[in-house]
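From the shared-data thread, chain only:
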Amino acid sequence: MNTTINHQGVDDGVPSEMQTMIADSVQRLFAKQVTRELLERFDDGHRAESLWQMVVDNGLPGALVAEAAGGSGANWLDASPVLHAIGYWQAPLPLAETMLGAALLAHAGMEVPEGPITLVQAGRLGDLRLDKDSARLDGRAVNVPWARSCRWAVVADGQRLALVDLRQTAITLAAGSNVADEERDTLVFVNASCQAIGQLQLADLHEPVWHLGALVRACTLVGTLEAVVDKAVMYANERVQFGKPIGKQQVLQQYLAQMAGATGAARMAVQVALRSASELFLGTAGNHHTLAFDIAVAKVCTGEAATLAASVAHQVHGAIGFTHEHTLHFATRRLWSWRDEFGSDAHWAKVLGQAAIAAGSEGFWAGLTDRSL
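Structure, as tokens:
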């Protein structure tokens, strides 16, 4: 489902010209550049620096930044093909984080530095806090994406936003990684200074990096899910056993159908959340904001689909799918990693469940139908 928001904030149901242009551009770039050799070199510890320069040359890091601030002026639906492609091709870049960081800085009226940019939500995955009076940072943040590769970090504490130079001596870094070998580092701040401070105006998003980070991960997960479905279907049709493709076996067809169905549900949930994000950032959502609810649903759906898809894909591929020589692991390791980042499906299911309990029996159905739980 490719939809977009027109200038009046109405869902047209068809891709916009910008969405189509962005999709074509990123598809051509990643299809040519994100090769097996590049991914293997990344796993061996080599950064994809030339690929990063290409995405910069194509203006992708500023896709969500208004044209007046030097970006492309795309809304979340228009820019979603970039996030989808990161997942589909497993592009080993801090592009999704930079896109979100730049969007938040621009929305707060702050200058956007040259990326890459990483993200930290104060109070999540550590005890980092931004002092209200001195605008200094103290505490610890863990699992910070791509911190070693980034000079700048966007730190959100409530609706306050700080741009932080990670190269200052008041910040120390301990290297870490997720299952996909992507940088997930620990940062320790000791009276660290901020390059700039801004104020966001995003109603109902009390933890903007945490919520929108979950949306970004959900988008990339859908891309990876579709890549895994394609790999599994292709292998099932090519692998011949007892004189016929294994995809002709009814039990495998059922597994593949379950995986495809879960991927389709995840895709729809993400599209709904992207539409809500576009409306909120454009200021067309009015007084009723559904983004927090929609993000929670999207992260639950994509996380559950990731668990199912990784399991089914490896069952379909059999022993060869578990080898380093096969390319399946590039996708499934990212499914396992990304499903838990910015809140797992269990975390967001708990958020929804607690809201439903708080609404009580009389408020449950109304809250569910207007997506305000």
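Strands lie at 117-121, 129-130, 137-145, 152-157, 160-165, 171-174, 184-192, 196-199, 240-241, 244-245.
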